[in-house]
Design brief:
With 334 residues, the chain is an alpha+beta fold. It has one domain: monomeric porin ompg (Porin, Beta Barrel), CATH 2.40.160.40. It is 18% helix and 39% strand. It contains seven helices and 13 strands. It has helices at residues 6-23, 37-43, 48-63, 76-79, 137-142, 206-209, 311-315; strands spanning 120-131, 151-162, 165-172, 177-187, 196-205, 211-225, 229-239, 250-261, 266-273, 275-278, 285-294, 297-304, 324-333. It has a twelve-stranded antiparallel barrel. Helix 1 (6-23) runs antiparallel to helix 3. It is globular.
Length: 334
């Protein structure tokens, strides 16, 4: 059982206010490869007070992990034996922590982490608009490395609707896109099975799910080594990736990612998604990150060459000569 604390409610409300702060200015995020990226970034601004409140509450949540009842704040490796595969000894318990795989995302790609029946997870994705590949260091410092230049914000809530089956709804400010997403965790790695496998299916639509629908199908395959390393291969087919150009095209990409646990609660993460066929504008999307697990919270500070976070946006790749600072924040409720 879980308990939703007052701090968790404050965190969620503040994050939602952050997104409202963006909407209050009447600005629309557009993922249009025919538009100059600089013009897009000028549209993606956020009210400074809303940004400050959001970031402040994130810090409070991370600094006080004792309020996170979703999972034990102690290191499970000290109290519960693990197998060489990195999966906990309680293999039939979907709520048991997996030290090598603490989150449902790598950066943007899905992981194979299971969600227990009726458990849930809230996640905030945040990609600042400042391009770190342009301007001087002093110029970036004066803008707090993108914090003063607005951001693209996304919210996700996922729920365990059946054993090994989870459903999620995600909304990002780019194109006002909604993504409805499901994942069936069919196979779990153990001493006799060398890898975990999850089936992925989603559909997303722009303008609050009113146009340019893009269904996607894929697989997430992971291999964990002890409790220190997880590697991922994620082939995904996405339909209608050039819909904004009124062209009927598909894209197949193969996401490759990894996560290394460098201390009891700190991880280094990276991913890249080369396109294997179909519509392939710009450069393959990639990113790298450092993250911290604190009880049921997970905070990830990341850098990406694009701001897309849905399957369709990720399939279109990242921008040339671009790097954007961002973060993911997740909170488990189980």
């Amino acid at each position: 059982m879980f308990a939703i604390t007052r701090r968790s409610i404050v965190f969620s409300a503040a994050a939602y206010a952050h997104d409202l702060g963006t909407a209050a200015h009447g600005e629309e995020m557009v993922d249009d490869r025919s538009v100059d990226p600089a013009q897009l970034r000028r549209r993606m601004t956020t009210h400074p007070l809303a940004r400050a409140v959001s970031i402040g509450v994130l810090g409070i949540a991370l600094l006080d992990p004792c309020s996170a009842r979703a999972q034990s704040t102690s290191d499970p490796s000290r109290s519960e034996p693990t197998s060489q595969s990195g999966v906990t000894a309680a293999d039939d318990d979907d709520a048991a922590p997996v030290l090598a795989e603490p989150d449902f995302r790598v950066l943007n790609l899905p992981s194979t982490l299971r969600l227990p029946l009726h458990g849930s997870n809230f996640q905030l994705t945040h990609r600042f608009n400042g391009n770190l590949r342009r301007d001087s260091f002093s110029g970036h410092a004066s803008n707090l490395f993108g914090l003063d230049q607005g951001a693209v914000v996304g919210f996700e809530y996922r729920f365990g609707i059946a054993r090994h089956l989870q459903a999620a709804v995600y909304r990002t400010a780019i194109d006002k896109t909604f993504q409805f997403y499901g994942k069936y965790d069919a196979v779990r790695q153990d001493d006799s099975i060398p890898a975990s496998l999850s089936a992925l299916f989603s559909v997303e639509g722009a303008d609050n799910f009113q146009e340019r629908y893009s269904p996607a199908l894929g697989l997430a395959v992971s291999r964990m080594v002890a409790d220190r390393l997880a590697v991922y291969a994620t082939p995904v087919w996405v339909h209608n990736t050039a819909g904004i150009l009124n062209i009927d095209r598909d894209t197949v990409f193969v996401g490759i990612g990894g996560r290394v646990r460098v201390s009891s609660t700190v991880y280094l993460v990276g991913e890249v998604a080369p396109r294997a066929g179909g519509y392939s504008p710009d450069k393959p999307a990639y990113g790298f990150a450092i993250e911290k697990r604190a009880g049921g919270h997970l905070f990830q500070l990341n850098v990406n060459n694009g701001q897309g976070t849905t399957f369709g946006q990720f399939a279109r790749g990242g921008f040339s000569d671009s790097l954007y600072l961002g973060f993911n924040l997740a909170r488990k409720f189980f």
